[in-house]
Write a structure and sequence with these properties.
The protein contains 19 helices and 13 strands. α11 packs across α18, α12 packs across α19 and α18 packs antiparallel against α19. The protein folds into two domains: 205 residues, D-Maltodextrin-Binding Protein, domain 2; 211 residues, D-Maltodextrin-Binding Protein, domain 2, CATH 3.40.190. It is α/β, with parallel strands linked by helices.
Length: 428
């Protein structure tokens, strides 16, 4: 059921609006009585990280009722569907989660989020957030959200014990080496790769990595500036590679990503898993140890890249409790907030002054890579490169190919679907 604000809260909102948007968090706590945040963080490390932030918010704003309106499933796809309905009905939450990049731009162009540039100067974020990331949050010279983390998408995971049984001694550096190792896992009695077919997005996530490996950074970025065609020879090669790789996967096409990941780390029935670094926090929440129970490397062919995504929070137009939302946004950008959230979430802080000692061995390695690798290639599936319309069509195109068995003979039709998906995004 959609949440409704009380008349008292609306009267309070009218009053504080006269004061302005820079009311300190301490005053907001005394004035506003309710904060509703909208996310897709409902389980595992993401839920644990959010809870750490909630604790801090409640401590700083003890008189504000906190409402966590999370919608689980499909890496945010389910939540975005609900959010679209709410925004169209003029019933926005006080703040909602959005990926930095083209996904965020979708809300900006629709006139659904407010300018937050004043907060960057007021809180000093323009000095401690990477300039390149701020650029992805900026449209027409205005900044529209506050990033709380950085995730790495191009990660290959495996169990050292399983790899030893298959005779694999190092991570595959190329797509060709990857295929060779998939065959080794298969010969040793494992599924070569764990696949999560529930909702299309996880297979599309895998295809992101193959596109980057086969096209290189310039070719990959070119898919979104018109320099690389979606039916080019390079994309055709990536489609064939996807077909080859999927043939080594598990037969079930309905697994969610945590279940697919458990095949590698817990059950040890599959060899490799290509997933973002939130997988590590999921496994840690289940008692597994990074570097012991599982190992990692850049996805094959992408070692020079940090394919990134960033979760950020917005201030919707018409937010019922604006100042309570601003208090939340300030916490999201603060050092205390980011260093409480990210070690549990399985991501790294946006802030350059974050305390690395609070993070596990995987995340410390990610921090080092973030500052030295090429970050031009953002995630497609997670909103950096394409808007909401394109992402939905792209996921659907990849999912259709996968569900059909990803036959090599079907790559031509797949390319046509990708061309149509891009056109959908351009028209939105």
């Amino acid at each position: 059921m959609l949440l409704k604000k009380t008349k008292l809260a609306l009267v309070a909102l009218v009053s504080v609006a006269l004061i302005g948007s820079t009311v300190p968090a301490s005053q907001a706590a005394a004035t506003n009585k309710q904060l509703e945040i909208f996310t897709w963080w409902a389980s595992g490390g993401e839920f644990a990280g959010l809870n750490e932030m909630i604790k801090l918010y409640k401590k700083q704003n003890p008189n504000t009722k906190f409402i966590n309106a999370a919608v689980a499933g499909a890496a945010g796809t389910n939540a975005k569907g609900v959010l679209v309905s709410r925004m169209q009905a003029n019933n926005p939450p006080d703040t909602f989660q959005s990926h930095a990049g083209a996904e965020l731009t979708s809300y900006v162009k629709a006139g659904q989020v407010q300018d937050l540039t004043f907060l960057y100067k007021q809180e000093g974020w323009d000095k401690v957030f990477p300039a390149g990331l701020i650029k992805t949050l900026t449209v027409g010279g205005k900044i529209y959200s506050v990033p709380v983390n950085i995730h790495r998408a191009n990660v290959l995971w495996w169990s050292p014990a399983s790899a030893a049984k298959a005779g694999i001694t190092s991570a595959p550096a190329t797509i060709a080496e990857f295929k060779t190792d998939l065959a080794k896992f298969k010969a040793a009695g494992f599924d070569g790769i764990a696949l999560a077919g529930n909702g299309d997005w996880a297979i599309a996530h895998l295809f992101d990595q193959i596109l980057l490996a086969d096209l290189g950074t310039a070719g990959y970025v070119g898919l979104f500036n018109g320099k690389t065609k979606w039916d080019s020879a390079g994309v055709a090669t990536a489609a064939k590679d996807l077909s080859d790789i999927l043939a080594y996967g598990n037969s079930s096409k309905t697994l969610d990503w945590p279940d697919a990941g458990d095949m590698v780390v817990k059950a040890k029935t599959a060899g490799f898993f290509v997933m973002g670094d939130w997988a590590s926090s999921q496994w840690e929440s289940e008692g597994f140890k990074p570097g012991v129970d599982y190992a990692w490397a850049a996805a094959p062919g992408t070692s020079k890249n940090y394919m990134w995504l960033s979760d950020s929070f917005t201030l919707p137009k018409g937010a019922p409790d604006k100042d309570a939302a601003i208090a939340w946004l300030k916490l999201c950008g603060s050092l205390a907030g980011q260093d409480a959230f990210n070690p549990k979430k399985g991501s790294i802080a946006v802030r350059t002054d974050s305390n690395a000692k609070l993070y596990d061995s995987y995340l410390q390695s990610a921090m080092k890579d973030w500052h030295k690798l090429d970050t031009s290639a953002g995630s497609i599936v997670h909103g950096v490169m394409g808007n909401n319309a394109f992402m939905a069509a792209y996921d659907s195109a990849v999912g259709k190919f996968y569900q059909a068995g990803a036959p090599a003979s079907g790559t031509s039709s797949f390319l046509k679907d990708l061309v149509a998906a891009y056109a959908t995004g351009q028209a939105a």
